[in-house]
Write a structure and sequence with these properties.
This protein has about 500 residues and is an all-alpha fold. Helix content is about 85%, strand content about 0%.
Length: about 500
Amino acid sequence: MRPALVVTLLGAAAHFTTVIIQILIARVFGAGETVDAYFAAITLPQYVITVLTAVLPVVFIPVLASDAHSRGELLRATTSVLLTFTALMTAVALAGIAFASPLLHLATPGLSSNAHALAVTMSWILWPGIIGAAAVNVLTATSHSRHSFTPPAVALLVGGVLNVAIAVAMLRVWGIYGVAAGMTASFFVQVALLYRAVYRPREPRAEASASSGVVREVLVMFWPLALSTLLIKSTVVVERFLASEYPAGTISYVSYASRLTTLVAFILSIGVGTVIFPSIAAHVANARFSTLGAELSKSVRTMWLLVAPAVAIGFVLAQPAVAAILQRGKFTAEATTQVAALLQIYLLSLASTCLGMITGRVLYALKMANFMAVAGAIEAAAYVAYTALLVKTIGITGVAWGFVLYNTISITWHTAIIQRRVGWSEPAKTSGALLRTAIAAIAAGATAAVTMRLTHNAWLQLAMSGTAALIVYAIVLAVINPADFAALRRIVRAVEKEKGPRV
């Protein structure tokens, strides 16, 4: 519980810095052509970073776990993989810079000529960030394999704070380019911090050539999964491609709503998802499948305690939440309405997204890379087709509905495969607990819907309705699901007792 809380609290603080960045962008630039250009420029570099984050740790950690490396062997493996992937990402970054304009034409063809020119320049600043991101992911995987979770979380937080500091300092000098510069710089600060944590001064430096076998194993697992993940994680590219064909500002609406949802999903899932993965890998490596099934059930029930009320209450309070966070300066009430409508739909994907953080890690630990690659490719191709059809049929909200459908399908087949391969400890008991928690969350959402009518101030609506909804959630949960309510109380007490991060 303690490392999960540390990762969650530090991760939440780090990702709150992204909210500050969004507030700055919304206040200064609103939701027009300039912001469309920023989101267009960041699309492909962020796409590559997302793939690295999704794939590198989940192929590297099982290799370290299954081979039972000593500390010296672990460092040699880290050095080899670190050099390999920073070299590969340097080549990709140089290609991205060289072909920035045609790549933007492919990804966001509907941008105006002015927005396209802005996006090209910003992409030159953003592409080098993927080099730092590759190094961060390798070093993070090594730290997690030691069951040391605090250094990566601290590095993420420091990087986020630096990102905000650079954006604030450079916004008036460089405008939107300052935001891009802060993002790239933050990755290299994280590398420096993690390097010191992984390669401690008292430990000998490792020779890269000593672990070529590990590099080969990682690459063999990485490429098929990376290729499929390029399709699986193509949602953001598809979203902005389709949104670019709509009037100026539409890319901004979709991106604001999507990013707010991603932030909530990260906060809810990162602690449990990060801490459980090394244990899952160890259980699989040692064929402890009954223990794995029990731990999986407990993890899913724990995460659902947080996700269910977030979906129900967030759906009701989407409008005041967007108004309170973003509506100021050039971000208008009309923009708030547009973003809130999309956010309500996106929030419906939280359950499958967060629970998929657990089920996906089980599949990765089982080293089902080839199967995941094929299934992911088929699933992603279907996503592109039905999302394009939805957008054509119902308009830009089809982008959000496509994302919900995509994640729902994913969690369904994840669960089926895990049940077949591993076995799920007491599935009927787990399903019943999840249903009772959902009923308590619905009661909380209904409470929020009633109490928000008492005031029209966005901040008061959030405070009053959110508090009332959480109280009702706790009461109903205590009555109909006392076992999980006791688990929730343990989480709250652990948060209250957490005085500072511990490794």
